[in-house]
Amino acid sequence: MTPPLHHRVADTLRGRISRGQLAVGAALPSEAQLCEEFGASRGTVRQALAALRNEGLIGGGQGKPPVVRQAAVAQPFETFLSFTRWAREMGREPGQRTVEVARRGASQVAADVLGIDEGTPVIEVLRLRLLDGTPTMLERSSFIEPVGRLLFDFDPDAGSIYAHLLERGIDLRAARHTIDAIGADEVDARLLSIPVGAPLLRERRRATDATGARVEYADDRYRPDLVTFTIDNVQAGRVSPHILKETS
Fold first, then answer.
1. Which of 120, 209, 210, 218 suits a disulfide with 141, CB 3.0-4.6 Å?
2. Which residue numbers delimit the HTH gntR-type domain (predicted)?
């Protein structure tokens, strides 16, 4: 089904902001110009601009064209698990360079999260993730062996690991995310082209399948000049956090 026109207008403007075509501090085209460009009414354009204001992407107004406040595009929670899907839905080009896929004994941290004994064999993946060719995130994952071994017949440079696992029948149903800050270690610094000790946003994740079994522990580290996180709380019987990821 074709999305409403105001969604398409908002998505187009988000893409221009995220790609730098509309830089921070730049004024957006006037409402009249946007109406002409998209063949839309003023009401439709105003709906699109209101959505961007609510996301914090634009500000100003009051009779003047709004200006770009930050170059960040929100990621819905349902795409949080897939960097590839997230990037493509923003109109960006995802990429990856696999550094290592190896079978080794689980570290104490991974074992605790996965509910297995330390030293139990797991499949570890280290990948550099790119947005439009720019090093953006370093992905460290530990999969339980029955799941991780499915990656040995897959080229991790070809696309989404999660999409491959879903195709192979692994029903990745839920995840728990912990977000904090950490200084870049030597591996982070070398692969992300940043100084050692530079601040990174870290997202640690425990993913489970449809039965509730723990299948992955991940430690993903993002450059904060390229990606930020936003949490929206929605009251629906109880307060439930809705996690969004944003990119500049």
1. 218
2. 3-71
Say which residue the tokens 């699109």 belong to: 48
48-95 confidence digits (pLDDT tens): 898 888 777 888 766 677 898 877 555 444 445 578 777 776 677 889
Backbone angles phi, psi at 82, to 5 degrees: -115, 105
Alpha helices in the chain, H assignment, sequence order: 5-18, 31-38, 42-54, 83-89, 108-114, 145-148, 161-167, 186-192
Q: Are residues 197 and 143 in the same domain?
A: yes
**Distance in angstroms (rounded) separating the CA atoms of residues 148 and 78:** 22
Find the domain containing 165 and state its range.
75-247
Q: What is the CA radius of gyration of the chain?
A: 20
pTM for this prediction: 0.67
- Tell me, what CATH number does 217's domain have? 3.40.1410.10
Residue 20 phi, psi (nearest 5): 85, 5
Round to whole Å and give the CA distance between 133 and 83.
14
Q: What are the two backbone dihedrals, phi and then psi, of residue 137, each rounded to the nearest 5 degrees?
A: -150, 145
